[in-house]
Amino acid sequence: MLFALPLFPALAGLAIWAQGDGSRLRLGLIAGGTAVVTLALAVLAAAEGWQGSFVWGAGLELRLALTPLSAAVAITVPVVALAVLVFAAAHEEGRGPARLLGLMLIFTGAMLLTVTAADLLSLLIGWEVMGFCSWALIGHLWRERANMASGRYAFVTTRLGDLGLFIALMATWSGAGTLDYAALGRLDGTALALTAFGVLVAAGAKAGQGPFAAWLFRAMDGPSSVSALLHAATMVAAGAYLLARLHPWLSGVPGWSGTVIALGLVTALAGGAVAVMQGHAKKLLAASTSAQLGLMFVAVGTGYPGIAAVHLVTHAALKAPLFLSAGVAGKAAGTYRLRDMGFGRTLPWAAGLTALAALALAAVPPLGAAWSKEQIAAAASHQNLWLGLAVMVAGALSAAYAARFWWLAYGPGDAEPAAGPRWLEIAALGALVLACAGLGLLWLPAVQDALPIRLPEGTPLEIAASLALVAIGLLAGLTLARRADAPEPQAADWLGLPALIGHGIVVPFERLAHLAARADDAVLDAIPRGAAWAAIRVARGWRWLDRAGPDAVPRGAAGATRMLARGGRGFGGLAQADQGALDAAIWRIADATRALARLSDHPGETLTDGLPEGAARITGRSGADARRLQTGLSHHYYAIFTIGALLAILFLIFGKL
């Protein structure tokens, strides 16, 4: 039964995509209705404890299950997707709305498969489908070359991290003979270490942590609704979710928890600093996403995966409306540069709703995100006092960039919007902000007692220090916002990380690729060319032998017969009648010999020449077809991957019959 949860939105998305463009209202209603049904399925699955399994054979089994942690995320995903789909139908312009909405539903289904997966194979399928959807959605407006380039950048970066998940899957299969999550408990030694750190690399890449953070900025070339879904409820959030889900089996690996904490803390501080300096509305929010996910990593590393999951939910409720409001402001200004905005007077509804979401990002009580952030600070303080202080500093940076974003985008100003938001856009924004406000119930002790997670105990002094730093961050953010005319520092581009990646990885890799191409042309291509050359030489040799040997026999016989015929006339001892009969017989032999020569000439040459020449042509054509597969284009890769996956699925299903 649980397979219906990810399959329903994915199949509905394919149907919407296949039917093509039409009325945006109709497309929005269909997509929104699909999200509503998906939400109902998620609630019912959580209440009834649905499970699912599908046996492929050869020990491979897809298993889906819901835990309290995964159930909360599974409900959050369609809630956010519903509002984002409605917003996208009303807000996004240009061609291909059916493709956009369809891909977003497939994206939602892939995330739900990732959330409900109870084995590494099911997880990998959802993980990879999300990678494809992110590439396609970031490059949705593919007629602009920059969008396609950004989609490829994000695709390659996350795919590099996905190698860790492949390593984890192979290590688990090798060590336990099965891919169930429970099998992780039977691993030890090298297999367990490879699995644990492989999962960490894959999760860090998806979540934009550490060296993988730069792809989040490139992803901002996609539509604002795509950014909202990507950062709030799907792909980026999947990294933190995966660590929280697998924490019980991986936390005991030596050095794993410390590495998770270090990676998360560095990203939280670096992402916060970058967001404070950013002058691009969506990039500011992207850096803040990386920073908030870093806090979730810290919570997992300190032994509180439940707190990380709660912060994931509260972050989804605030980050989605902030990205949608950035889309409203960007459309009104014709640009995403914050210094060109300031629609507090002309767009009051958007300004008011965005203010509430920004306060949640700043962790101002009594909003739900403030509670989950304070719990992370308490968990870090239990681990180490300095670690707790560093998390509080990251919280102060959150307050600074949240205040700066709101003041520049919707603070006091006389900017006139080029286009105002439609009522459906405001409705979607308002629904998400209402959910964000409702999560403030987490401050109630009765609600905290009902949570099926372990909570750290924070001291009043820690809470007071954390809130004081939040207040300082708010003041610092407002002060920086009033200096909007100051030039944006170069460090705002992820502290120079993209340039470092470009010069340290991309440029050397491209040079290596050029050298490999030359080697391929000079060495590898020389093999089929040499085979073709040799085949041609063999063909010519056979042709010469054919003419010198088989063809010479009938020609020589014909010549000898003619000579004999001429000479026969000189046999004077023969009677005239006998002489005539002999001449006729000789000429008949000559005619038969010439006919035999003509008969053997064409078929013989066809046979003797055709074999080597045909082999040469086949060799050349095979080399050309093989080179056509090596295009380096992402869509060709996914086409081959999809065909291979379908063939593998059919083989595994019907191979047992």
In short:
This protein has 657 residues and is mainly alpha-helical. The protein has helices spanning 4-19, 24-48, 68-91, 97-116, 120-138, 145-176, 189-206, 214-218, 224-232, 235-250, 256-277, 281-301, 305-333, 348-361, 368-383, 385-410, 423-438, 445-450, 460-481, 497-524, 526-548, 552-568, 576-628, 634-654; strands at residues 51-57, 60-65.
Q: What's the arrangement of secondary structure elements?
A:
Blueprint: H1 4-19, H2 24-48, E1 51-57, E2 60-65, H3 68-91, H4 97-116, H5 120-138, H6 145-176, H7 189-206, H8 214-218, H9 224-232, H10 235-250, H11 256-277, H12 281-301, H13 305-333, H14 348-361, H15 368-383, H16 385-410, H17 423-438, H18 445-450, H19 460-481, H20 497-524, H21 526-548, H22 552-568, H23 576-628, H24 634-654
Antiparallel strand pairs: 1-2
Number of strands: 2
- What's the order of the H and E elements? HHEEHHHHHHHHHHHHHHHHHHHHHH
* Low-pLDDT ranges: 569-574
Percentage of β-strand residues: under 5%
Question: Mean of the pLDDT scores?
Answer: 85
Our measurement of the CA-to-CA distance between the termini, rounded to an integer number of angstroms, reads 25 Å
User: Major β-sheet, in short?
Assistant: 2 strands, antiparallel
